[in-house]
């Protein structure tokens, strides 16, 4: 919420038009996906480690990151760029970098921060491009491997239990809900200005 107000303070009218309104248009495109993801999240408590639980967790993590987390991290990128005078457009902030780069950009300016603790770029890449070796299930453990192709290939590995993966999903949702609430509160804060300025 502070970040939104800091961006607004730099140039209220341009911030509302170029960042706040553009974000609103962007986030509305995710409504159908959001509904589907919430239905999947509601099923998490029913899943057992012995059935398809770990794979379901993996699929939900991938969906949450790409379809819900990314639009909100794009908003933070846009606000920071606007504050720093390097903002060109919301499309540029949204589509100009991958999530990993967006998170690194934000962390460099917001450290220390736990906002993005549910996000792990190795896990994100492994679940998006599992191929033959990106995911392995060993009992209660899920081994995520991000493979950088080349000669020789390079790989990074992260191991989480199903419970840890579930916790990471909930951390991502905490960030998403916090950002959503902050945006709504900010919208109320600026509503008089919006009403008064055609």
Write up this protein:
By secondary structure, this protein is mainly alpha-helical. The protein has nine helices and three strands. The protein has helices at 2-10, 12-28, 31-43, 53-84, 90-95, 99-110, 121-128, 162-189, 191-196; strands at 135-138, 141-148, 154-161. Strands 1-2-3 form a three-stranded antiparallel β-sheet. β1 (135-138) and β2 form a beta hairpin. The model has no long low-confidence stretch (mean pLDDT 87).
Short description:
This protein has 198 residues and is mainly alpha-helical.
Major sheet characteristics? 3 strands, antiparallel
* Beginning-to-end CA distance, first to last residue: 25 Å
Lateral strand order in the biggest sheet: 1-2-3
Helix content: 55-70%
Anisotropy-based shape = globular
Mean pLDDT figure: 87
Give the structural class: mainly alpha
> From N to C, what is the helix and strand string?
HHHHHHHEEEHH
Oligomer: single chain
Instruction: Indicate the proportion of strand residues.
Output: 5-15%
Got a strand count? 3
Question: What's the SSE blueprint?
Answer:
Elements: H1 2-10, H2 12-28, H3 31-43, H4 53-84, H5 90-95, H6 99-110, H7 121-128, E1 135-138, E2 141-148, E3 154-161, H8 162-189, H9 191-196
Antiparallel strand pairs: 1-2, 2-3
Brief descriptors of the model:
198 residues, mainly alpha, three-stranded antiparallel sheet, 9 helices
């Amino acid at each position: 919420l502070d970040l939104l107000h800091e961006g607004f303070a730099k140039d209220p009218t341009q911030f509302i038009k170029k960042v706040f309104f553009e974000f609103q248009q962007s986030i509305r495109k995710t409504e159908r996906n959001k509904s589907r993801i919430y239905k999947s999240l509601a099923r998490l408590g029913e899943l057992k480690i012995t059935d398809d639980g770990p794979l379901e967790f993996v699929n939900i993590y991938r969906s949450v990151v790409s379809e819900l987390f990314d639009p909100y991290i794009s908003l933070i990128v846009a606000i920071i760029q606007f504050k720093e005078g390097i903002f060109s457009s919301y499309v540029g902030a949204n589509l100009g970098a991958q999530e990993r780069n967006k998170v690194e950009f934000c962390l460099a300016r917001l450290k220390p921060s736990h906002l993005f603790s549910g996000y792990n770029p190795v896990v994100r890449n492994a679940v998006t491009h599992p191929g033959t070796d990106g995911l392995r299930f060993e009992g209660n453990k899920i081994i995520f491997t991000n493979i950088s192709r080349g000669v020789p290939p390079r790989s990074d590995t992260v191991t989480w239990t199903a419970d840890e993966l579930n916790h990471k999903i909930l951390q991502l949702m905490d960030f998403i809900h916090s950002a959503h609430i902050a945006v709504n509160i900010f919208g109320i804060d600026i509503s008089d200005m919006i009403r008064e300025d055609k």
